[in-house]
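We include the pair:
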Amino acid sequence: MSEAPAPLPAALLDALGRRAEQAGLNAAAAPHEAQIEGWLLRLSPGQAKRSRCVNALAEGRLPLEDVLARCQIPFDRADLPLILRITPYSRPTDLDERLAAMGWTAFEPALVMVLPALGAVTDPGGLQRLSPDDYARLIGELRGSSAEEIDGHAERLRRAPVPHQAFKLEAAGELLACGQIALDPAPALSGAPSATPEFSPGGPMVGLFDIFTPEAQRGRGHGHQLCSALLAEAGRQGATCAYLQVGAGNVTAQRLYGRLGFHTAYRYHYRSRDPRAWA
């Protein structure tokens, strides 16, 4: 595929972005969750902030300061810093500005990218399936995670309502790349554009997660091979479109995903007033 895919119609990009947000929330479901005033609290240890943050999904009735104070209590009990994930869909709509005025620090901006159809993906093959425990151990060791973080990751994978499937690529016993897919069966949103031969927003949507290439193997095309194989596997399981999340500063990865046909749908970031959150 070309370096920069042709722009998508705005309505389709919006529909895919909204669907990717819901699918991402489903895929990141944690064993320890709570709700306060329509906000979703996730309280699982680990490096993935999406599993230990607050998603502000509703306006709520209480003043913002009161809602934040209520959220602080379970995070203190779990010995986790209180972190809010801020997206274009966060509520109230001025939440980001109000938190900034209260001195909450913004950090770790990221992009959500979407692929409208899997039909053009070729399958290079070579995937080896891993169990949740084996994958949590593998990716945890690669990232220098603690034993508690690895155990927490494995537990989330085992109990995820949207099953994660983990794979790796190897050559002569050496790891080339690894990653996961999570297939979300959610239907297309009401009001979404009708599918066309080129764009199929309906049907299951697959998320790519934890895409990792060891430093010594980078720049050799292994990430592209892995992602192509993962998307092809998801297509065999019925997926019609895809999404992923990537750091806003990770230009190399964004180029790779662009070559696969992904488009940026929206940005998000986190806010916290606890320095542990971005340490």
